[in-house]
Amino acid sequence: MRTRLQDGIQKPKLHTLSNILFPATKHTEWRHAMTEEINALLKNHTWSWVPSSLSQNLVGCKWVFRIKRHSNGSIEHYKSRLVAKGFHQRPGIDYAETFSPVVKPAIIRIVLSLAVSHGWSLHQLDVKNAFLQEDVYMAQPLGFIDPIHPSYVCKLHKALYGLKQASHTVFLLLYVDDIVVAGSDSTHLQQFISLLGGHFDIKDLGPLSYFLGLQVLHKYGTLHINQLKYAHDLLHKANLLNSKPASTPLAAKVLLSISDGALISNPTEYRELFMSAPRTSHLVASKRILRYIKGTIDLGLTFTPQTAAASLSAYSDADWARCPNSRRSTTGYVITLGTNLISWCSKKQLTVSRSSTESEYCALSHACAETTWLCSLLHELCVRLRFPVQLFVTISVPCTWLPIQFSMPATRHIELTITLSMKRWLLEVI
To answer: Torsion angle, CA of 300/305/306/308, rounded to 10 degrees?
Structure first.
């Protein structure tokens, strides 16, 4: 089995700006951004200078440059970030755990749905250099060598980006250093932000408008989210801004195969579903998806206020053995909180289903697992739900068939797959 790295496949860089230090220092904007970053680190007591010794495992550092933009594409500010070279760290010596808490997209949509339903204020924060518990020593940053102790090293008291444990000590529901807070009382919300600012260097970005690539619009008591800027950048990168829009993301009755069409001579620009050997038919299909995005670039999700006791509904479906290469089926489901869409999935099943019934039950099981997690999450958030959860499926037999018919030879092997769904159904949860 070959890995992606062995095939020369690497994740593309999100930011293509040069990270070479000396050309950047010639520009006033970047020099100002670097000085601002250093001042923020020093103000936050991120490190202290100590003499170097042979017992220290010295971690290098470098500058990363990025232009941060508004949702309309205009420049917000120039950002220089000092990052540690975490690959210099040794496990068990410089760090023990590398877990970083990041919010799931479904949770973001749940919070937005609850906020618009309860009239909560939504506020966006950015934590500057928030992040250590282990002893980590870092070389002094280029361009800012301490003139008094040029041979000293930096003993880190708080983590820098790039370290293995950089965001381990954050105890909020956030995405690394981007935070969205919601509250029913604006005064208490500001008190919370002030309290947080007493421990971390917080940048108040005001009411929520742009978060993790999502543009958030407040319209007549509703919230609308879209990815207009991201879609525009994607089309610009693919040189398809002036292309003819497509009405559907995929042509009817098209099944992509690993053998259809000729191999692409330079596949570096298209490596997604068929990573190891993309072909011309795959490239045509991917361009059609982009042309579909071109025609629907201004569409998004709208969250409307819901009733006091919201209902959770799920819809699951599956195609049977449609993959021409593996004959595996594809699971699909969508889940709504009231009328607000909060979670969805389309994923190829791990095993080959022996019947269409089995593929449908496999999809039902995945949808049931997701609704179970969402129910637990909403319970933690003190959200009242109406039970049972409605789960709509396309199985041709009635649900009363579930507990009694697994002794049949054609369906005996499905029992383990459907056990979770059966238990939830018997408990009248779904």
So the answer is: 150
Q: Measure the CA angle with vertex 330, ends 325 and 332; round to 5°.
A: 160
How many Cβ atoms sit within 10 Å of the Cβ of residue 295? 14
* Closest C-alpha among 320, 309, 308, 430 to residue 369: 430
- CA dist list (Å): 376 to 169, 194, 338, 380, 418: 24, 30, 17, 6, 20
Average pLDDT for residues 257-272, to the nearest whole number? 53
**Distance of alpha carbon 120 from alpha carbon 123, whole angstroms:** 10
Domain residue ranges of the chain, discontinuous segments joined by +: 21-226, 228-295, 308-426
Per-residue pLDDT reduced to its tens digit, 371-430: 989 988 888 877 888 888 888 887 655 454 454 444 455 555 565 566 666 666 655 666
How far is C-alpha 206 from the geometric centre of its chain's CA atoms? 22
Burial of residue 216 (CB within 10 Å: 0-12, 13-18, 19+) is buried
Strand order in the sheet with 330-337: 340-348, 330-337, 310-319, 385-392
| Separation of alpha carbons 138 and 49, rounded Å | 10
The answer, as to whether pTM is greater than 0.70, is no
For residues 359 and 59, give the distance between their C-alpha atoms in angstroms, rounded to a whole number: 51
Which of 4-13, 18-27, 173-182, 243-252 tops mean pLDDT?
A: 243-252
Confidence of residue 129 (pLDDT cuts 50, 70, 90): low
Q: How far apart are CA 399 and CA 428, in angstroms?
A: 12
Q: What is the CATH number of domain 308-426?
A: 3.30.420
